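## retry 2 of 3
previous attempt timed out at serialization; input unchanged, resubmitting
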Amino acid sequence: MLVLLRDDGRTTLFAFPNGLQQDNIELVHLDLNTDPRWSLEAVETFRRGQAVIMEKAQLFEEIKETLHTYIDLPEERFYAFLTLWNIGTYFFPLFNTYPYVYVGGIKNSGKSKLLAICSCIGFNSIISANMSVATIYRLIQNARCSMLIDEAEQLSNRYASEDFRNILLSGYKKGLKVYRNRRTADGNFEAEAFEVYGPKMLANIEGLEEVIESRCITIVMHRSPNRTITDREVDLTDPIWQQLRDKVYPFMMKNWKAIKQTYAELDNDTTISNRDWELWKPMLALAKFFDSTTLFEAIKTFAVEKTEEAQNDDMDNNDYILVQSLLSMVTEDGHYSLRDIRDIMVLLLGNGNWLTERSVGRMLRRLGFNRRRRIGTGYQYFLLVQQVRTLAQALGIRTDDPTGEVSELGELCELATGQGNTNNNTGEQQT
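## retry succeeded, writing output
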């Protein structure tokens, strides 16, 4: 027997599977036998129209204070962010993307405790440190659960646990699927598609590889001296967690349309772009819904700072350094030699003597610079000022030179190449 509960409290009982077919409802995925997260008593109260729908400010503060009670976070605004993230796990099907949260830090800094707390609050949350990949596939698809993976050390290496990595590569965005081979009754194999979109929180000590980390909002935990909080244990069976969830579910049923509209109408008036905006948009929409001014502006500032922080962490990324070099040296449209580009990159890297002209050529082509000519034994690439500036802006590199950094790099170009415009220089190594 299946029960469909609507947001107006009406229920429909189905004798599986015939009842579904009669009502033109298709059950795409079979539900799993997971523990109920919304108590039957609270469901019945909602069905009768007797549920008390909490005010949004009241619900937000109650969840935030619960986090304050059990965990000592490095920054105060982490509490507001995690409150929104946990509430958002109930609304994630409304969004095109939903950001992962990565919790890093040394041993005994509270990573596992934070995951435990969030597992008590979030929608259909399941926490595990040793769950099989096959189980994760089915839990996400069939139960639309929030996955909290503790001690995910294998994610620091892109070649470890490729199946798990595939889930994380696709699972932040609605509509992306992962395919696995399934053995059929006749002994053959057929491809089976899994929808793996959903909230995920990851914790480990060693960090994440760059591609996975780009889908995450990172929180680095520190050991807290506040023994009152650190010694307070999280009892997963404490009735307070069920009581809290029983307040969130009816709130979800009554407010999902308003949150969906807020998300659809939210425009990007920040410096955040591309995937970073996709990841932050659900959090910003939720912040705008809960508080159209103070909270929204605080989360917006937080989003910009975290995005810039992530970009600064990538300062040693070769592509990033390459574009910085091009921005400083490409002052007019024309041909520029690989040797000069390579020399500027070496100066910026500080210890970049390992860099070859061949590798720089591959990087240029990967970034879309394909027009080149051979001069002697080397190559020159035809570079457009606007193309370089557009690429720099896409990577979050400022092009207006507010601090004089670009001018300073331009002086380095002259020192490295012997002249400002390097259109006529030739390189020596073939790409």
